[in-house]
Amino acid sequence: MSQLPARIEIREEGPREGFQFERGPIATADKLRLIQALAGTGLKRIQTVSFVDPRRVPGMADAEMVCQGLRDVDGVAFGALWLNAKGFLRALVAPHLTIDGSVSVSASEVFGKRNQNRDREEDLAAAAALMALYAEHRVPFARATIMAAFGCNFQGEVPVAAVIDRIAAVLALAGGVGLAPPVISLADTMAWATPRRISAVVGAVRDKWPDLELSLHLHDTRGMAMVNAWEGMRLGVARFDAAIAGLGGCPFGKHAGAAGNICTEDLALLCAESGIETGLDLEALMACGRLAEEVVGHPLPGRAKQGGLLAV
Amino acid sequence: MSQLPARIEIREEGPREGFQFERGPIATADKLRLIQALAGTGLKRIQTVSFVDPRRVPGMADAEMVCQGLRDVDGVAFGALWLNAKGFLRALVAPHLTIDGSVSVSASEVFGKRNQNRDREEDLAAAAALMALYAEHRVPFARATIMAAFGCNFQGEVPVAAVIDRIAAVLALAGGVGLAPPVISLADTMAWATPRRISAVVGAVRDKWPDLELSLHLHDTRGMAMVNAWEGMRLGVARFDAAIAGLGGCPFGKHAGAAGNICTEDLALLCAESGIETGLDLEALMACGRLAEEVVGHPLPGRAKQGGLLAV
């Protein structure tokens, strides 16, 4: 286990992932209640909303209202997701957000078409357009997400070479407009990852770009999220997205069953008991996990919020 | 990953674990429906019932009726659990069972008192009495379970030395009556295991007894079962207990939340996608997972039964 990192950073995706995926309407005030509770757990980065088309993702129709309701917390960055210039410009004028530039491209062309109706070239062109905007607005280019990096419900296996190709294309585009390489988030959008696939993809990316910072975005649809995260940590990956209580899922991924992200508090507990620092308050996270269930009105898949801390 | 076994054996504990732990009464016919479905998945060993005091474990009051209803399946051994001579003698006369001798001792004395009302010496004396019966009845001594091998909700940390001490005591007793060393099942009865604890305990046992066959019995109460199983497999452990759909839990463990075993179909899926043979039919297992939910009348924690096989 020699490569286990001393510390990892968990980026909270629960509000963004969960409120896009849940079927029932969730009151803006309830979203804010969960977000502010999360801001008291030691999380440094909380993804709050997506600026996307409310006709496609009705749960995000109140994105501006959520931002208006945020209360700043010292040391906590509230973030947002957007996938095109229009979304970025909405985010730019929303209050209380930390605006870090990000792009998402799909390693599976078929999924790219389903998710954003973009083929490979259109996918890159959209990323390039966003990067140009980041350069123009002097917004740091923080993160590039490679979606479907471990497999795809529509295409099937995604070759490691396709992931490498997408990263290379993003890095070339970034260099072209004078932007430094961002964190590369390898997203298991449709829960195809296994330890073996994690090892293959992370290993290939590391071989080609030893200095790139990697992050993993994992879903637990098939029960593999924790074991995949562990494999990532064994390989030295020190950045993870996670969602409180295991909220979330991509609305366009054709998932069966619960499709949530790796559960923040379960991952934090694994780290705490493995000597890996997260800076998180586990008791406060467990309470947030239970609050998330109250807010969405049904049980959520995370285990530790009930199974609990070890206390004698 | 060099020690990953080429093949593991999964022993199904779902009926025994689940029917002891579920609150609602489950009809004998429904138990049998699930057991026979499991017998069609490639599982070679299915624990069906416990011969225990029905006043303490009401869900097992129909143990004899379940056995009478079993239909033999080629290549499948139906097993049972007992914790004392009375239970063993009930099992001996029940039809359709494969009678393998087993004993259970607790690495935590406090848990031993709660579970069986036995202190350390009484715990060993009960094991010795069973071994004498196995020798007398020419029943193979197949398995010794070390309960609470990774920690205890009552005692807290369980020192590795306590696990070693219990194994040494069992092996000495077995040798004393001419029985060969059994498989040692390290049971995470109260879900304290983490990869680090798995590594510490398995490593210490291996150091002392390189040739002992080890098995892991893991609970997912805190979301760690899969990562613990993976760590076990990385260390070369090739025997695992598991429960269909993640059924189960010890009635005397003071668990919060769902306390089920590692989920059979999730573990089998991890193995299938990691190149580790299980001999199991994944589609049939997923169907059994859904049947288990139907039989107990509520959702069960396993993920793959809904999240599904990868099919494009």
UniProtKB/TrEMBL annotation, chains A, B:
Highest rank taxon of the organism: Bacteria
Pfam families: HMGL-like
Organism from which the protein derives: Teichococcus deserti
Residue span(s) of domain Pyruvate carboxyltransferase: 8-286
Keyword Repeat: no
UniProt keywords, alphabetically: Lyase, Metal-binding
CDD domains xrefs: DRE_TIM_HMGL
Name the UniProt record assigns to this protein: Hydroxymethylglutaryl-CoA lyase
Family listed: Belongs to the HMG-CoA lyase family.
PANTHER family associated with the record: HYDROXYMETHYLGLUTARYL-COA LYASE
Any one GO MF annotation of this record: metal ion binding
Gene Ontology biological process terms from the UniProt entry: ketone body biosynthetic process; L-leucine catabolic process
InterPro entries reported for this sequence: Aldolase_TIM, HMGL, PYR_CT
